[in-house]
Structures are given as C-alpha cells and as structure tokens.
Amino acid sequence: MSKFGRRPHAPASKLKPLDNSTIKDRSIRASRLVREVQAKARERFVGSEETVLVTEQGRSMKGRDIYYNQIALKNNAALGSFVSAKITGSSAGCLIGYATSVSD
Questions:
Q1: In which region does residue 80 sit, left (phi positive, over 0), alpha (psi from -120 to 50) or beta (all else)?
Q2: What pTM was computed for the model?
Q3: Are 83 and 55 in contact (CB under 8 A)?
Q4: Percent of the chain with pLDDT over 70
C-alpha cells in the first residue's frame, strides 16, 4: 500500500492537496482493511492439504503453494522439495501447517 504522490499531467494532480495527517489516516485504514481481507481469504485453506514447494529455511521452513501463498511449515523438509502440507492455521501474511509427506 502506498500513499498518493502527485504525478505531472495526471488528472489528479489538479486536485487540492490533502494535509499529511489525512493522508496518513487513510493509508492506515486502507492497510488495515487489506490485512483483514487477506486474513479472511486465507481462512478458507485451513483444514486443507496443499502441495508446497519448500523455498526457505529460517526459524521455520517456508514454501509456496500453487496460488503463491506463503506457508510456514512447523516441521523440517528439504529445500527445493515438494511436500504435501496440512494447513492448520492462517494469518494475513501466511498459512501455517506441517508437512505430511514428500512428493516425487
């Protein structure tokens, strides 16, 4: 989410400028709404089994499903492998689950 910036020759550049506090307030409200919508959209995956490509190793293993959702895995899996993962939770930022089997 980014704040509006004037662009020369764009129709909106002729509008009266808003004060910074209004811009900041609108940006905060819009960002909250985006996070709420993302969290609600990801809730539908809870309880499902997804194929995940394991792409990162950190505090937890992370990967992506076919919809490019990030999935944090509670157990280990080899980087670069495809695993079946049971989705047990969600947030605005990612899905949470555990690897149930390695796909060939």
A1: left
A2: 0.72
A3: no
A4: 93
Q: Which CATH number goes with the domain that contains 49? A: 2.40.50
First to last CA, the chain: 38
Assess whether pLDDT exceeds 80 at residue 98. yes
- Give the total number of structural domains in the chain: 1
Q: Is 10 helix (H, G, I), strand (E, B) or coil?
A: coil
In angstroms, the CA 5 to CA 8 distance is: 10
Asked if residue 1 is part of any domain, the answer here is no
The 10s digit of each residue's pLDDT in 27-68 is 999 999 998 998 888 999 999 999 999 999 988 899 999 999
The domain in which residue 60 lies consists of: 17-104
Alpha-carbon distances of 79 from 37, 51, 54, 102, 104, rounded to whole Å: 30, 14, 5, 11, 14
